[in-house]
Amino acid sequence: MLERLNQAMEHIERHLDQRIEVAEPARIAVTSEYHFRRLFSALAGVPLSEYVRRRRLTVAGAEVLTGERTLLEIAVRYGYTSGEAFARAFRAMHGVGPGEARRAGASLQSQPRMSFRLVVEGSSSMRYRVVQKAEFRVVGRKARVPLVHEGMNPAIATFVRGIGQDTVQRIQRLSDQEPEGIVSVSDNLDHSRAEGTELDYYHGVVTGAAAPEDLDALTVPAGTWAVFGNSGPFPQALQYLWRDVFTQWFPSNPYRSRPGPEILRTRLSQDAAQADAELWIPVERTAV
Q1: 0.85 exceeded by the pTM?
Q2: Which region holds residue 193: left if phi is over 0, alpha if psi is between -120 and 50, else beta?
Q3: Most buried one in 74, 124, 142, 169, CB count within 10 A?
Q4: Distance (Å, rounded) from C-alpha 230 to C-alpha 274?
């Protein structure tokens, strides 16, 4: 898996001055575009699109300093439609415009090339099971919220506080299958998974029942799910669980993620400092 990922990274590096379609590095890595984007983001800590942008501006910065091409030629070569657009992007990364950088020989920022290598960890095992589920519905209240990678998500916290207890209890009574009780469901995420991009968040239950007219509903097709559990400090344990699934479990098992909602069942301690979590990720088997 790591060898194929590094071959995909080499492809990206060789085509920084061309339009990069994610389908090709995903093909080299022998996985889907969806899973490649998610795996890259989890392993690298940045979305693939951001990494490519920063690598292009790093290489473009070196060309600016050499003075062998005009600034407009460099801009066009790395995919910018105008010198002004290139200058704005250049300044945002390097803190100085390309013209000023060339005249003054300024110090520039650099995004190093990424490669992936094996780090022997695995000292603690992950609890997981694979479940086949028939079609079901998520029923509850829905909001469009920004993605937050670490710490509490203020938009979700405010949204949940605004749901009346009578409504929560009515939603909870609709729960009739795993995962039981109130769950947090994330769907329709931006493919980059960049901080601040938006997603559909449901505070609801998993059910086979029809949704009341005053509640939101999401129909989820039948499929395979990998279910992970852990316990620890809230909310860090929940966010680390998602990270560990993609950086440790997927590279070690014959599965990849597939499009679909992510479902999180959380049970907090009395002081809300600790949490028991169960994370449901839609998956499909990879070819052996």
Answers
A1: no
A2: left
A3: 74
A4: 11
Rounded-to-integer distance, Cα 98 and Cα 86, Å: 8
Token pair for 106: 């300024």
Report the first-to-last Cα separation within the chain, whole angstroms. Answer: 12
Rounded to whole angstroms, the Cα distance separating 54 from 60 reads 10
Q: What is the DSSP string of 184-230?
A: EEEES--TT--TT-EEEEEEEEEESSPPPTTSEEEEE-SEEEEEEEE
Report DSSP letters for 251-266, one per residue: HHSSEEE-SS-EEEEE
- Rounded Cα gap, residues 113 and 130, in angstroms: 36
Query: How far is 136 from 30, CA to CA, in rounded Å?
Result: 30
Q: Could you give the CA distance from residue 280 to residue 266 in angstroms, rounded to a whole number?
A: 11
Chain-centroid distance of CA 105 in Å reads 37
Nearest by Cα to 38 from 281, 278, 207:
281
pLDDT tens for residues 57-116?
A: 999 998 998 888 999 999 999 999 999 999 999 999 999 999 999 987 778 888 888 887
Q: List, in order, residues 6 or more apart from 227 with CB less than 8 Å away.
A: 128, 129, 130, 131, 179, 278, 279, 280, 281
